[in-house]
Design brief:
The protein is of the alpha+beta class. The protein has two helices and six strands; from the N terminus they run ββαββαββ.
């Protein structure tokens, strides 16, 4: 993962939340594609890909929320992640 990537674990009302921040997402990648890609590492509860109101394009970063810490650990066991030819 790129240096801009980080993991955040926080206590929430329903228990623990396991999110990763993914930077440098190619313009052509959709939230559906991100969800499908990261699902190979564990169950994805949510994929949040924010859009810019002015341009209509996504902001090239997202948050992936996993159901368990194992999903997050599995993501970080892989050295790099490539989506549509670009390293995220």
């Amino acid at each position: 993962m790129a240096a801009g990537s980080a993991v955040r674990s926080a206590a929430g009302r329903a228990g623990r939340i396991f999110d990763i921040f993914v930077a440098e997402v190619p313009w052509t990648v959709s939230s559906k594609e991100l969800r499908e890609y990261f699902s190979q590492f564990g169950p994805v509860q949510r994929c949040q890909l924010p859009f810019d109101r002015d341009t209509g394009f996504h902001k090239r970063f997202c948050w992936i929320k996993f159901s368990s810490p194992e999903g997050v650990q599995n993501v970080f066991q892989k050295d790099s992640h490539i989506l549509e030819g670009a390293k995220v």
